[in-house]
Amino acid sequence: MIRRHLGKLATSLAFSLALPLALTATAHAQATAYPAKPVRLIVPFPPGGGTDILARLVAQKLTEAKHWTMVPDNRAGAGGTIGIAEAARAAPTGYDIVMGQKDNMVVAPWLYKNLSYNPVKDLTAVAHVAYTPVVIVTQANSKFKTLDDVVKAARAAPDTVTYGSPGNGTTIHLAGEIFNGAARIKMRHVPYKGSNAAMMDVLAGNVDLMVSSVPSAMAQIKAGKLRPLAVTSAKRSTSLPETPTVAELGYKDFDVSTWYGIFVPAGTPKDVVTTLNAEINKLLATPDMKAAIIAQGAEPQSMTPEQFGALLKTDYEKWKGIVQASGATIE
């Protein structure tokens, strides 16, 4: 009888000890489920540009595939640095993420004297989404039929040929300055607050050229309103196979392109980074997502967080020299 009671007591005690552990494990799993609420995707440029297009594509496809709630939030200004700074200040919970690109992650830190963030220390690379060459375009009925026409005009009358860009300090702005140096010409840079404003002025003939990401220019190229003169990458763009590279046109080793990817504030839990990376990489592997990115003029490319972080660090150091050689600075 005593043995039976002791056995029941032991069983009861074991159950009472196991129950809190089980409840704790369940609560922990529920607490760490990600995402448990809407995720804000900060877009550091105005609506309609290449960054905005790709960010909204990622948000849309994740919502469709995973039923997550992704809320794009445009925080434009200062060459994309305002949005990145906001992301760097955000709580590292995974509920404030940002679509960064080469402009504001590796070029701006060497241009802006008082930038409030260090991209390598204050942000964590999550998922590379795409890369794209820069394209030099002009109005469809422009007098410039080829890139050589531009060079001849700029040499004949320095500082009279104008080119617009999405803003001071962007990769796109510097692509124009690097071409100035390679061609030994002086085109005048006209900065805008985002790609759309620059696009409107080149379409209206207020500036001669626009140096643009391919995604930003693609719709107007397809509509026949813009003429692409050259792309700045080492090889031709999949989206613009008939457009020559700058290197093909006689400027050896000319290669300027940009990339786009998702970042989170430093200190964000590793499981959140891993989850975001895995789901975005799954999307990038689907024919639908690949086609959508290529249709926008970009090239899809997935990476692990470690690979993307290494690319960030390499480009961060590389562009220090490029910016210093250009002499460009922004207060």
From TrEMBL:
UniProt protein name: Tripartite-type tricarboxylate transporter receptor subunit TctC
Tagged with keyword Signal: yes
Signal sequence interval, chain numbering: 1-29
Tree of life domain: Bacteria
Signal is among the record's keywords: yes
Gene3D superfamilies: Bordetella uptake gene, domain 1, Periplasmic binding protein-like II
Species: Variovorax guangxiensis
Keyword set, alphabetical order: Receptor, Signal
Cited SUPFAM superfamilies: Periplasmic binding protein-like II
Similarity comment text for this entry: Belongs to the UPF0065 (bug) family.
InterPro entries: BUG, Bug_dom1
